[in-house]
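Researcher: Going back to the complex we discussed earlier. I've cleaned up the inputs and rechecked each line, so this should be the final set. Can you rerun the prediction on the complete assembly and write out the structure?
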Amino acid sequence: MDRLRIYGGKPLEGEVNISGAKNAALPELCATLLSAEPLLLHNRPHLNDVRTMETLLSQMGVVIEHSNGSVTLRAQEIDWPLAPYELVKTMRASILALGPLLARCGEARVSMPGGCAIGLRPIDQHIKGLTAMGAEINLEHGYISAKARKLKGAHFTFDMPSVTGTENLMMAATLAEGVTVLERAAREPEIVDLALCLTAMGAKIRGAGTSRVEIEGVAALHGAEHRVMPDRIESGTFLVAAAATHGHVVLRDADPSLLKTVLDLLRQIGVTVDAGNDTIALRGNGHFQSFHITTAPYPGFPTDMQAQMMALATCADGVSTLTETIFESRMMHVQELKRLGADIKVEGNTAHVNGVKQLSGANVMATDLRASASLVIAGLMADGETVIDRIYHLDRGYEAIEKKLSKLGARIERISA
Ligand code: EPU
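Model: Rerun complete. Updated structure for the full complex:
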């Protein structure tokens, strides 16, 4: 397994290009299952999760071609509407194939994703929603087996906003008979981007990005071209790394409008943030204030930025609190940050972080994607050498992170197994 070695203490300086969003690309790749005609996606991020999703789709019969950061997918025939355990266990987002397969083929078998490091993450909302649309669903031998000769439009209210749940049902509803209304839907920008992609394919969707999404089913979707939105979490991660190292970094190809809560907080703690149309510049001021965040569904503070903010809090002036409300075990980075000298106490779902003067490099272990990002940031802040083990988590969701950070002057290298 590869590791990352970081010699910390150097401010990040320079410009970095932001990649396409993992969590928009994954459902958009699955959207290709809804049409026999080709879907051309630009700004495809080079990530292991994207490669896994493409492997999954090609096993189903989708023909895939890459060129210059774009990908063309053609699902002319789907010979095998199955998402096997071997792939699903490495990437929960494989559940996003369920809705489109069912809508297009009338049947699907997708392995149950099971729990993961950040929590139990049930998929009951996906199943309840598809059942409301007339699917017959059985859970057997670790698989979700779904059948529906023709899905029917339905009025479905989520028990809680679910991002992939909303995406799965929205995709399924594009080919259902009649109108589907999704209430208490998630409002994340990735859902809006997926809706734009589906609309380009001929779908009729209103209200994506609000808690009520209305989809009028059509007989078939057609080929289309779509550009994957910029990754707001990668953007936030680089901004926090720049603030944490008192650096000066400019993000290119970013979208500041998607990061309001994060940018507001960074300004509030005392760093300078200037947002342009597709750029964000951050300049550190030598120190930063403590802060308080509570994660919440969009437009609240993103859970996918909690771990990175905790790394920042370890050296803030004063005591910060970070409360995680979305996932029950998303504090795995606490123990590792403590190995680097952080002063953190966890009470229930709240971490109290007492800022220290300096972290000190150590060997640590990555436990999930965003926890890994927080350890990279902490390694950049720490004195001396930090070695991060199990960075395959990082490769799932950050494109060439060590190359991008090196370009900003970080002393970071990959140690290949
Ligand atoms: N939930 C249920 N039942 C369901 C679905 C969700 O109880 O059927 C619960 C979850 O356990 C959680 C809450 O609802 O407590 C929200 O979960 P959600 O379904 O919104 O999460 P997700 O769709 O599985 C996506 C992102 C995650 C991100 C969350 C929250 C993708 C592929 N994944 O997951 O991204 O943390 O939304 O914003 O879009 C990451 O990129 O690191 C990542 C984990």
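Model: Worth noting: The chain has 14 helices and 24 strands.
Researcher: Good, that matches what I expected from the previous run.
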